[in-house]
Specification:
This protein is 47% helix and 18% strand. It has 146 residues and is an alpha/beta fold. It has a five-stranded mixed sheet with strand order 2-1-3-4-5. α7 packs across α8. The mean pLDDT is 94.
């Protein structure tokens, strides 16, 4: 992986998997520096909302809208409707997605609201999610609201 920020998101996803959770990671980058990082911790924390992106926002802490409007969000998986809402709420202008083959989130909504979305089809992201979904279909379906 040549992009250190996507690699940081992948590392977060791997940490979540090692903790017994769903392998989705995210980082928020402002002016070339990670200001928030997180991974899906729904299982670990018994939380209905701690997706990777939401955890990254939580760990970024309270920031001004101006900071978020200058930030890029990296996520290993296409953002769901909840995470898309947070991206739109805080005005993140650019989202880099590791993969959307295993789950197509709200990329069209993001684009329709002016967010630049780039999907990089990262093989590590695809393999990690494919393996998890195959081994844990019930947990995966719960995570995406099915």
């Amino acid at each position: 992986m040549s992009d250190p920020f996507m690699q940081a998101a992948i590392d977060e996803a791997k940490q979540g998997l090692a903790e017994g959770g769903i392998p989705i990671g995210s980082v928020i980058v402002h002016r070339g520096k990670i200001i928030g990082r997180g991974h899906n911790r729904r299982i670990q924390k018994g939380s209905p909302i701690l997706h990777g992106e939401m955890d990254a926002f939580e760990n970024a802490g309270r920031r001004s809208a101006a900071v978020y409007r200058e930030s890029v969000l990296y996520t290993t998986l296409s953002p769901c409707s909840m995470c898309t809402g947070a991206i739109l709420l805080y005005g993140i202008p650019r989202v880099i997605v590791g993969e959307n083959r295993t789950f197509m989130g709200e990329e069209d909504l993001l684009r329709s609201r002016g967010v630049a979305v780039e999907v990089i089809d990262d093989p590590a992201c695809i393999a990690m999610m494919s393996g998890f979904i195959e081994a844990n279909p019930k947990l995966w379906n719960e995570d995406i609201g099915e």
